[in-house]
């Protein structure tokens, strides 16, 4: 396991695990979808994450990430996502310069080691939040 990516997955899991039980249950997933992604009753995303598993452990989340096609996105794929899915083309050059690819998405989702502010230099709080939230969506539920 890539240590930095695994640490980011652990942080994502902790973010979702509101009751600190060590597992993310369906209610916690639904709460995340409603409160953070502003999606009501998104059964497709629930099914993607949980499938037949009511409780998601860190290991489950890691295994899900290793099968996520976004993990293998090239820098060009990430830039396309940044421009068209998030609507922040003004950061394309820095993403290209820093060679941000799909393997960096968990770090973006948690702003691990301040990647968004320190490494990418994105100062606008709203833009940082958009990148973090959309990266978490892709890490958890796929492209």
From TrEMBL:
<keyword id="KW-0109">Calcium transport</keyword>
<dbReference type="InterPro" id="IPR037608">
    <property type="entry name" value="STIM1/2"/>
</dbReference>
<keyword id="KW-0479">Metal-binding</keyword>
<keyword id="KW-0732">Signal</keyword>
<dbReference type="InterPro" id="IPR013761">
    <property type="entry name" value="SAM/pointed_sf"/>
</dbReference>
<keyword id="KW-0406">Ion transport</keyword>
<keyword id="KW-0106">Calcium</keyword>
<dbReference type="GO" id="GO:0051049">
    <property type="term" value="P:regulation of transport"/>
</dbReference>
<keyword id="KW-1133">Transmembrane helix</keyword>
<feature type="domain" description="SAM">
    <location>
        <begin position="73"/>
        <end position="131"/>
    </location>
</feature>
<keyword id="KW-0813">Transport</keyword>
<keyword id="KW-0175">Coiled coil</keyword>
<keyword id="KW-0472">Membrane</keyword>
<dbReference type="GO" id="GO:0005246">
    <property type="term" value="F:calcium channel regulator activity"/>
</dbReference>
<dbReference type="Pfam" id="PF00536">
    <property type="entry name" value="SAM_1"/>
</dbReference>
<dbReference type="InterPro" id="IPR057835">
    <property type="entry name" value="EF-hand_STIM1/2"/>
</dbReference>
<dbReference type="GO" id="GO:0016020">
    <property type="term" value="C:membrane"/>
</dbReference>
<dbReference type="GO" id="GO:0046872">
    <property type="term" value="F:metal ion binding"/>
</dbReference>
<protein>
    <recommendedName>
        <fullName>SAM domain-containing protein</fullName>
    </recommendedName>
</protein>
<dbReference type="GO" id="GO:0006816">
    <property type="term" value="P:calcium ion transport"/>
</dbReference>
<dbReference type="Pfam" id="PF25578">
    <property type="entry name" value="EF-hand_STIM1"/>
</dbReference>
<keyword id="KW-0812">Transmembrane</keyword>
<dbReference type="InterPro" id="IPR001660">
    <property type="entry name" value="SAM"/>
</dbReference>
